[in-house]
Amino acid sequence: MALSSSIARLFKPNSASLSLRLTQIGLLMTLFFLALALIAPLLQGIDWLQDPTEFLDNAPQQAPSWQHWFGTTQLGYDVFSRTVFGTQAAWQVLILATLLGLVIGIPLGMMSGYLGGNLDRLLLFLMDTIYTLPGLLLSVTLAFVVGRGVLNAAIALSIAYIPQYYRLVRNQTIAVKNELFVEAAQAMGASTWHLLTRYLFLNVVQSVPVLFTLNAADAILILGGLGFLGLGLPEETPEWGYDLKQALDGLSTGGIWWTTLFPGLAMTLMVTGLSLLGEGLSDLINPLSNRDER
């Protein structure tokens, strides 16, 4: 309810604050890239997009033209097609990675905050240990172990997000578990499972959409880093980080700028949109705390 009412405030005619305007821009940018990922196969089906894995029929390193809007790569791949289809890989990995972190981190945080004791100390120590490791370094290490692929990349990314959901939900659970409505439910004999799912869950996850959005932006950057290092998705999969890696030689030796500009611009715009959306949701869901911090 709190999230839906906050989103509804985005488009109120009298909402003229800079924060709301930036959130609107972030939402529109995010929806644009989501729509692009969904309609990419349709555009390919009506011959508006080339197959992003085909390159033999194209002349290599062609500048942008009516035939190839974003030019072609050193091997002959159509840059426009690979940039558009790269949104699919980005969405698949970021959704899986953030959902895995959410599904594991939220239950652990609720149990740890509610039950306390040795379980809380053990989980807190484990999560703090993981949290201190740089996300990219942790993802690179895990990518070496699990290998390439959408699911493997998502698993490698999600390990860094689990502690963030855990810490957020644990702190919220500790703050809420002593409220009168929880004590009343305990007095009536409600089980631990009933308390966690019925009374605590909706009260401790209100800030999770904000973290989910910011983690999604972070996941795109880390996926790009993995692809640039050759540890992300299979080579035949259109992915912005891998395409940037392949474009380096042409940029440094022949001034082939279009193979780096468009994948890099797409990654930047998608990350910017998600970041603006996350920051805006944070202002809308927690307006008082954010005002106090300023």
Provide a brief overview of the structure.
This protein is elongated.
Topology:
Elements: H1 2-8, H2 18-45, H3 79-115, H4 117-131, H5 135-146, H6 150-176, H7 180-187, H8 192-204, H9 208-228, H10 240-254, H11 258-285, H12 287-293
Structure notes:
The chain has twelve helices and no strands. The protein is mostly helical. It has one domain: Orthogonal Bundle (MetI-like fold). Helix 3 runs parallel beside helix 6 and helix 4 crosses helix 6. The longest helix is centred in the first third of the chain and has 37 residues. It is elongated and about 75 Å long. It starts with a helix and ends with a helix. The C terminus is likely disordered.
Distinctive features:
MetI-like fold; 294 residues; elongated; 12 helices; mainly alpha; disordered C terminus
The portion of residues forming beta strands comes to under 5%
Query: Would you give the CATH topology?
Result: MetI-like fold
Radius of gyration (CA) equals 22 Å
CATH class: Mainly Alpha
Structural class: mainly alpha
**End-to-end gap:** 26 Å
Q: How many individual β-strands?
A: 0
Percent helix = over 70%
**Total number of distinct structural domains:** 1
Mean pLDDT: 82
